[in-house]
């Protein structure tokens, strides 16, 4: 059967395949083919192919791939699974059920090296949790998101793949030349792509291990020259950046309000603020707005540009984001 394929040199095949996967353009129903020094990667939708690869699309016969065997087909029910790089995460209280799911995942055609089960809630200042390793032997992986790759260890740092769309929404607002301070940066899922857009990013986190990964991820994604990674409490480590920020990211939903005085001190004459909060459904945006206005005082005019429900967090509670414009008066 003739299908659209991206034709590239063999040595670029894995890199291009990853880019097509990030763009959700891979055709998993047909086999990748090799002819001499050229590899032909089937695509499901040519319009999703990155523009610099679009000219390399050509029609070619491709063998149909055997339909993958899913964990649900093996188990007879649909398990709740979350992907993070080559790790599959389950959330099961019953150890026998968790073990059965892990066995099915490893026996399926999912690309997976490790299966983990959540063994504790998120705990402590560093927002990490404990894990049971059900299959495989590690908690480190490389997660790919919108064309960027992030190495991390889920046992040592906080990271949520569920926020990929929200992160991308914020990142796409950044212009080249901006000065950004990411006040709770983790391994860099905001900082690295913002730097890729041409921003100079100061990225802070209390977790020194996360900062080590952030530095490595900046190198991995080719933006180390535009990312300054700082370990420690942002309230104590960023005084030299006062009055400089064109944009601030405050993704610490349970306690970001405690850092608003620092945010105001960091803001330049005009500054975009992305403030994340957890609030009850009765008034999801009011408390955050009031806290920002109180911190800004008479120094800044506060314009709430976007009120966004990011996701449900708990019964009757939402994780929300306020996009706010601070303008010095």
Q: Mind explaining what this structure looks like?
A:
It contains 10 helices and 17 strands. It has a 7-stranded mixed sheet with strand order 13-12-11-14-15-17-16. It has a 4-stranded antiparallel sheet with strand order 2-3-1-4, covered by helices on one side. The protein has a 4-stranded mixed sheet with strand order 5-6-7-8, with helices on one face. A hairpin with a 2-residue loop joins strand 5 and strand 6. The chain has 3 domains: 60 residues, Alpha-Beta Plaits (2-Layer Sandwich), CATH 3.30.70.2580; 68 residues, GMP Synthetase, Chain A, domain 3 (2-Layer Sandwich), CATH 3.30.300; 171 residues, Rossmann fold. The chain is an alpha/beta fold.
The H/E string reads EHEEHEHEEHEEEEHEHEHEHEHEHEE
Report on the biggest sheet. 7 strands, mixed
* Count of distinct strands: 17
Class per helix and strand makeup: alpha/beta
Strand order of the main beta sheet, please?
A: 13-12-11-14-15-17-16
Whole-number total of structural domains: 3
Keywords: Cytoplasm, Methyltransferase, S-adenosyl-L-methionine, Transferase, tRNA processing
GO biological process, one term: tRNA methylation
InterPro entries: MeTrfase_TRM5/TYW2 (IPR030382), SAM-dependent_MTases_sf (IPR029063), TRM5-TYW2-like_MTfase (IPR056743), TRM5/TYW2-like_N (IPR056744), Trm5a/b_N (IPR040601)
GO molecular function, one term: methyltransferase activity
């Amino acid at each position: 059967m003739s299908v659209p394929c991206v034709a590239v040199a063999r040595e670029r095949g894995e890199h291009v395949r990853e880019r097509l996967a990030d763009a959700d353009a891979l055709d998993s129903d047909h086999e990748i083919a090799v002819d001499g020094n050229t590899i032909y990667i089937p695509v499901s939708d040519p319009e999703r192919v990155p523009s610099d690869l679009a000219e390399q699309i050509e029609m070619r016969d491709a063998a149909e791939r055997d339909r993958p065997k899913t964990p649900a087909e093996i188990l007879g029910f649909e398990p709740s699974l979350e992907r993070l790089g080559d790790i599959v995460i389950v959330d099961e209280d019953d150890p026998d059920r968790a073990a059965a799911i892990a066995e099915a995942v490893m026996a399926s055609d999912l690309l997976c090296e490790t299966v983990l089960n959540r063994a504790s809630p998120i705990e402590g200042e560093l927002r990490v949790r404990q894990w049971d390793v059900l299959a495989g032997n590690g908690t480190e992986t490389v997660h790919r998101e919108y064309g960027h790759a992030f190495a991390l260890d889920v046992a040592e740092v906080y990271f949520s793949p569920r926020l990929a769309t929200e992160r991308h929404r914020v990142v796409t607002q950044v212009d080249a030349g901006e000065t950004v301070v990411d006040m709770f940066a983790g391994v860099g899922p905001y900082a690295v792509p913002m730097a890729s857009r041409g921003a100079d990013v100061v990225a802070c986190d209390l977790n020194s291990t996360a900062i080590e990964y952030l530095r490595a991820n900046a190198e991995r994604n080719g933006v180390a020259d535009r990312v300054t990674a700082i370990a420690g409490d942002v309230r104590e480590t960023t005084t030299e950046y006062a009055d400089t920020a064109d944009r601030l990211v405050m993704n610490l939903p349970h306690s970001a309000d405690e850092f608003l005085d620092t945010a105001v001190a960091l803001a330049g004459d005009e500054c975009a603020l992305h403030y994340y909060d957890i609030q009850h459904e009765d008034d999801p945006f009011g408390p955050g707005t009031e806290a920002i206005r109180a911190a800004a005082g008479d120094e800044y005019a506060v314009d709430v540009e976007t009120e966004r429900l990011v996701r449900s967090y708990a019964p009757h509670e939402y994780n929300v984001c306020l996009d706010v414009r601070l303008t010095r008066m």
